[in-house]
Amino acid sequence: MLSLTYGTLIHLLQVRDSVTSAERAAIEALPFRAQECAKGDQIIAQHSRPTESCILTRGLTARTNEMRDGSRQITAINLAGDFVDLPAMLLKVMDHGVVALSDCRLLFVAHSDLRELMAKMPHLARLLWLTMIIDGAIGRAWLVCLGRRSASQHLAHLLCEIYLRMKMVGLAQDENFHFPIAQHELADMLGITAVHANRTLQILRAKDFLTWINGIVALTDFDRLAEYAEFDATYLNMIMQPR
Amino acid sequence: MLSLTYGTLIHLLQVRDSVTSAERAAIEALPFRAQECAKGDQIIAQHSRPTESCILTRGLTARTNEMRDGSRQITAINLAGDFVDLPAMLLKVMDHGVVALSDCRLLFVAHSDLRELMAKMPHLARLLWLTMIIDGAIGRAWLVCLGRRSASQHLAHLLCEIYLRMKMVGLAQDENFHFPIAQHELADMLGITAVHANRTLQILRAKDFLTWINGIVALTDFDRLAEYAEFDATYLNMIMQPR
DNA sequence: CGGCAAATTGACACATCTCAAAGCCTGTGG
DNA sequence: CCACAGGCTTTGAGATGTGTCAATTTGCCG
Known about the structure:
The structure is a homodimer.
Chain A: H1 7-16, H2 21-28, E1 33-37, E2 42-44, E3 52-58, E4 61-66, E5 72-78, H3 88-91, E6 97-100, E7 104-110, H4 111-120, H5 122-148, H6 151-168, E8 172-173, E9 176-178, H7 183-190, H8 194-206, E10 210-213, E11 216-219, H9 222-229
Antiparallel strand pairs in A: 1-7, 2-6, 3-7, 4-5, 4-6, 8-9, 9-11, 10-11
Helix pairs in contact in A: 4-5, 6-8, 6-9, 7-8
Chain A binds a DNA duplex through helix 8.
């Protein structure tokens, strides 16, 4: 049985490689500080120098970069189970901020404890590095979307990704998932305007790809959507392999 | 004195943290297979499963993703000293390809040897992970450019970044550097058309930000360019710190 | 019922794309 | 040494995608 605290993280690691019971025990022995936060809260500020990283156990968060003119770009979305800012352990200074996209629950873990854990358990350390490397792959896919896909293909791609990632951690049933995102937030993800996000969403609705009501996204046909988005799940690395 | 083989890599690691002589010796003891390749060559194919990663010691390479319609997006540029595809060690399947943007020289190192090295030298391992994490930060900055900057600001930002990265490894003097990139390649970096890349470049020329002749970029005034691009070097992590 | 944020619509401006042609280099073969 | 081919750069004109601004509608919550 998975523990209530680090359960989702461990679950997510186990998608890619097996986690021994000693490794699981070591994770569960990590001291943490739990924190609830509300939609819209800033969790980590850009340019800050955190001494802890956090694991998201409930809700949605996003990495954001603010521009001088007040617009912003979301560069990543975190779901339950994600280690939200492990990179900060090495980078020292945050090059982006982290905000809550919904009410959420976080476990803060000290970098020093993490470092100790990773020194003691090299294979587990590799699994944690792996999650960061996958974040990078997800970022590259996002980048390709911004560079070479139309807004509607990009949105379709995003929804394909979120759906699969939610499924990995048990947050999607059938082809439905909870995604309580306002259109102006969607716009910040897609690098477009809120007005255009609205029109883009209407295109997908008109093609009968999905419904999106009260924050519940229901995909009509994942395969058709993936085809439209030119979606290739390789980058998500959902393969069980010794790493 | 830096060795001729792994010298640039070590140099680049030393920008962020000190490298002990034992660590340097361990790197230099790594078995490698040298390879020269010509501009345009594909170095690593998308969807392949390499068992080696490579260090670029001369020239320029890029990560690329191809779209169905034949267009492509470049998602990263590697300069001499960069570990071009360390992530492949953990990811197993390439989610992108790597091509030579100029004639270049590469050292291929077996993943098994790397794994052994990293097991033996944990601090050095952290430095290598660090380089991947910085790649991620560079990717995020690129993403923000695609999402929220105009083409001309994006190009300005790219040139600021390349200039600083080149300077780190001794490839830029004054505000000049060799960047033998065709406009259609530039377009693939910026996520625009070759025609528009040309017009974008003309904008920067008209503002007297640079000259770009025979593959030599000469910045007129880095600070003015950085101001125009809204460039903030935080993400490059050019800070010497124990990691 | 009123108020507020989010979603939607319309009209027009601007950035970028497309296609096509022309100009410019550079290397090569005659 | 010239002529030519091929790739790269530059220009033009019109189409399309996305942005801007402003107004209206919808839905939620007090």
